[in-house]
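Entry 12.
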Amino acid sequence: MGSKRLPGKILADISGTPMLGHVIRQVKGASTIKQLVVATSDHSLDDPIMKYCASIGVECFRGNELDVLDRYYQAAKFYDANPIVRITGDCPLIDPSVIDTVVKRFFESGCDYATNTLRYTYPDGLDTEVFSFEALARAWEEATKQSDREHVTPYIRTSDRFSLCNVENEVDLSSRNLRWTVDEESDLDFVRSVCDNLTDCSPILMNDILGLLDQKPDLLNSNSGAIMNEGYYQSLYSQAIAKAAPRLCLDQSEKWFARSNKTIPGGSQTFSKGYTQYVQGVSPVFLKSGAGCLVWDVDGNEYIDYVQGLLPNILGYANHEVNSAVTQQIAEGHSFSLPHPLEIELAEQLVDLVPCAEMVRFGKNGSDATSGAVRAARAFTGRDRIACCGYHGWQDWYVGTTTRNLGVPEVVQSLTHKFDYNDLDSLSTLLEKHPGEFAAVIMEPVNFVEPDPGYLEGVKELTQLHGTLLIFDEICSGFHFGLGGAQKFYGVIPDLACFGKAMGNGFPISCILGKTEVMTMFEEIFFSFTMGGEIASIAAALKVIDILKTTDALDTIKSNGKKLQDGLNVMSREAGLQDCIECVGHPSWSLIRFSDIADCESAVIRTLFIQELNKRGILSLGAHNMSTSHNHAHIEQTLHTYADVLKTISGWLNETQPESFLEGPIIRPVFQAR
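Predicted 3D structure (tokens):
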């Protein structure tokens, strides 16, 4: 009865029956349920719940108000329940057939805990959890965190001490954002509408509601964009501890750094991996090994890695299947004197997967692909100018547009022009200023900002109007937004596209794909290098595609990314930091955006954030480069860390000089690319 967002909701009237009555009716429809018990608190506010249960002849157990895990344990012990099926009282549309499905999977799998919530494929509000009494008892004995005690099952799901099983719907409904639970008044209005329209259905099934929504789409819940498990994230923040974490021992990093400066300019082969992009003296400088989403620095410190080599490790470090495919090929040779059949097999796979692809050429990194595409576009059109939007690599034609243009001739710089994302007028003005001179428009179709409705379609229309080729730079979005890339995701097909990074799960490979009439230009232009057909990386790419095609890897990445995104945003709001720390972008690849506030610039806030994450064992540049190897335990540990860091920074920003808490120089970007 004491809900903070909707007080008294458990007994709120829905078509003449309290909401709890609807939950009870629905649960009774499940054939696998042997006994039904309402477990409520012993607070006097919940006396009406006990009275209602008595009036309809349903068992009611009362226990600790705040320690809900103890309440469940004591109830299960009292009723000798094993296994236990947990249905929350704010799910009045719970489908009894879904309950039966999860219960049956629990018994079939022999696991400790089965649910349909580890990755949501059902509507929110059909949440079902089934667990053994032994698992409940162990959680009751071992769980110490307030959030674990309040929300009953987090310890079982995330401690790595229990075997888990997730049940997925035959049709993945996650993209529809269907919200059938009750936390807000708008949720209650939706449920009332459903019940009023389905009076002949008892119990009401998921397909009944889906059919109703097809007939009456105006009934769709106006609160469908609300955050799942918001209360849990609030609990994490409530229990968080505000204090600076102790420094890590980085003695070996410092020694290697001193050596590297004698022989390697900048100490790194890649700017974004260099020491200037982390907090000097606080963050590691050199890594020694990695497995899955974990890495270890040269001092032996362990980190959950959200950089993942700057995005290529979509399956995580040292993936066994990919490495096996590579080592098998290496044993037979991998840099041959003539082309290898695997080149054809990979090209055929990509042509099948990527909408714009009719022919393919391979490279080793993203800059190979984007520069090759630009050269082909210039040759095909007979024009010189390029319009660009986003980051496109280190070659002269692009980097000349940035502040890192030293060494690029001015005549080269003058041929590439930037335009603003989500601003069609910006591109139109540019193309009209130099009519008939632009060979191509090259752009990242999506980055950390989603395209406005009609924007990508508008870009394509402008390129067609001006006789200019459209190139999508999908080095980052390719595979992360699905095997067909962002072009398939958004339904806008370019003339050429560039893929890379995730293609080889860390092995060096990229590609240019496109229409035959343009791709045949590669028979004329010079796009040729010794390692272009290196077969070990091509074998890696074939295995990556196989894994992504035959598993739910991409859905898992999206689901876990969404939890991080939602959790960080809820806790940032709880900390009062929503104006300066916000997670934006697609869940599979999102950015933590830092903004200036009064008396503190965004760079200081970002540096403090990365400083405290690194010291707590999270390696981050301020983005979520998700991989399939980030599991529930890693996500949970990260969320707990975010809670501590946000609460700590919230306190520091209330001080006169927040920068005084910096333990190293402020991090400055190499250059502003997006």
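Annotation: The mean pLDDT is 95. The chain has 24 helices and 22 strands.
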